[in-house]
């Protein structure tokens, strides 16, 4: 009988202790254990995608509501939009919704000016010999501003005036000294910070020669004819007039005569608002179509698909009495896309402003009703869908988070079991080596005895 020469425990266990990849085994087992959490994460991703789609719809429908409010809001003045124009480029006019249509003709007889006063310095650059006395700047309203000085130099006086902030700014300019030699002397220049007579000023406390005002403060002035014979003048502290024609603001920049400022209804501004409403509907319908298309996240969502149909119905309904919106430049093609013809709108508005206003307002009201039904903060269908999606996302996140410590415990348990198995395998491997050594020793001794 042949004696065994070795005893291989690793053959019985399928591998030596160090060759088992416990990391991969545990990872694969944890993937199986984490399947419930993975399914929850997949649900969360789907719900987040749906929420984004609902929010996109909500955004575009809000734009429809905003555009509709330009016509339905009780404070809206879109139909009172006006445009002001001037017959002369020297006068630039704008108007608000409170301006009345009409033409005003006037002359620009004066422009506003800011006072400029200069003070010549002595050869050593001083303008105040006794700075301890300070200087005084008195405004047109009689208010006197005493300004303290630490030095009488033109530069230091300018700095003191600027720091005082009394409606006058000062600077030092180096000018010819009058000798014809090219030499210069400093000149203190005082400028009113605003135009008009109310910004005028006087100064005192400077050395001789006395300060010289080279530009008098002046108001802008427009007028017609002789005020003593039924004419009028209107003055402004600046070159902008805001009260002369109610609702109209105009600026003047030259002396000119017979300027005509005309105010008309601004058909272009009204047309732009209608265009914005049409564009908003197209954007909303396009977004709804994308999110409810075959395979899209909101496919089959009744709230969203019915919203699109309601938007189209508002167009199909037409104006009061079933008047086609095509008459007013609003149309819809076979794909559901709206279009707006500004020329047709302008023609209809010129021919029948009351009817055009009624038709567009009715259209806007229908769209306002549809959009409000979808996005109202309390009762809106889309609002409810967004609220529900947010709630489900919160719940899913909670459930996913609950699984995290549970999986951590399972992984810890598996690691402990495999560590124990590794320890046991290492022990068996050691015993296997010992037995193998003993068997070899016994085999060698048996062979020696046989030889004897």
TrEMBL record:
Keywords: Bacterial flagellum, Cell projection, Cilium, Coiled coil, Flagellum, Secreted
InterPro entries: FliD, FliD_C, FliD_N
Gene name linked to the record: fliD
Protein name, per record: Flagellar hook-associated protein 2
Pfam entry (one): FliD_C
Domain Flagellar hook-associated protein 2 C-terminal residue range list: 218-430
Primary role: Required for morphogenesis and for the elongation of the flagellar filament by facilitating polymerization of the flagellin monomers at the tip of growing filament. Forms a capping structure, which prevents flagellin subunits (transported through the central channel of the flagellum) from leaking out without polymerization at the distal end.
Cellular location(s): Secreted; Bacterial flagellum
Species per Swiss-Prot/TrEMBL record: Jatrophihabitans cynanchi
Family: Belongs to the FliD family.
Subunit structure, as described in the record: Homopentamer.
Domain Flagellar hook-associated protein 2 N-terminal: 20-115
């Amino acid at each position: 009988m042949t004696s065994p020469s070795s005893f291989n425990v690793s053959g019985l266990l399928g591998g030596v202790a160090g060759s088992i990849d416990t990391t991969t085994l545990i990872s694969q087992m944890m993937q199986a254990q984490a399947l419930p959490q993975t399914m929850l994460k997949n649900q969360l991703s789907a719900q987040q995608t749906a929420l984004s789609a609902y929010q996109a719809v909500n955004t575009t429908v809000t734009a429809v509501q905003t555009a509709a409010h330009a016509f339905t809001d009780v404070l809206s003045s879109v139909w009172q939009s006006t445009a002001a124009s001037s017959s002369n480029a020297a006068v630039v006019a704008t108007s608000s919704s409170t301006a009345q249509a009409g033409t005003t003709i006037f002359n620009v007889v004066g422009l506003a000016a800011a006072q400029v006063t200069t003070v010549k310095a002595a050869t050593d650059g001083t303008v105040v010999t006794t700075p301890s006395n300070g200087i005084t700047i008195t405004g047109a309203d009689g208010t006197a501003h005493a300004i303290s000085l630490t030095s009488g130099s033109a530069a230091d006086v300018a700095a003191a005036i600027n720091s005082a902030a009394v409606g006058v700014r000062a600077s030092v300019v180096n000018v010819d000294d009058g000798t014809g030699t090219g030499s210069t002397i400093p000149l203190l220049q005082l400028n009113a910070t605003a135009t008009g007579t109310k910004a005028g000023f006087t100064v005192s406390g400077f050395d001789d020669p006395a300060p010289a005002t080279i530009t008098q403060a002046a108001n802008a002035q427009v007028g017609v004819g002789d005020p003593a014979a039924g004419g009028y003048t209107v003055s402004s502290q600046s070159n902008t007039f805001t009260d002369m024609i109610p609702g109209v603001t105009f600026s003047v920049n030259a002396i000119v005569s017979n300027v005509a400022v005309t105010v008309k209804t601004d058909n272009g501004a009204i047309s732009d608002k209608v265009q914005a409403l049409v564009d908003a509907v197209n954007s909303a319908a396009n977004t709804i179509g994308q999110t409810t298309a075959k395979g899209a996240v909101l496919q089959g969502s009744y709230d969203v698909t019915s919203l699109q149909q309601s938007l189209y119905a508002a167009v199909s309904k037409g104006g009061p009495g079933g008047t086609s919106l095509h008459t007013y430049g609003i149309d819809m093609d076979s794909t559901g896309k709206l279009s707006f013809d500004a020329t047709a709108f302008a023609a209809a508005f010129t021919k029948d402003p009351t009817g055009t206003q009624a038709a567009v307002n009715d259209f806007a009201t229908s769209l306002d009703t549809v959009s409000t039904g979808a996005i109202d903060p309390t009762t809106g269908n889309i609002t409810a869908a967004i609220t529900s999606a947010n709630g489900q996302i919160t719940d899913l996140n909670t459930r996913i988070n609950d699984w995290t410590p549970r999986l951590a415990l399972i992984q810890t348990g598996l690691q402990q079991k495999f560590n124990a198995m590794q320890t046991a395998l290492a022990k068996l491997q050691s015993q296997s080596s010992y037995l193998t050594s003993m068997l070899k020793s016994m085999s060698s001794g048996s062979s020696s005895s046989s030889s004897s």
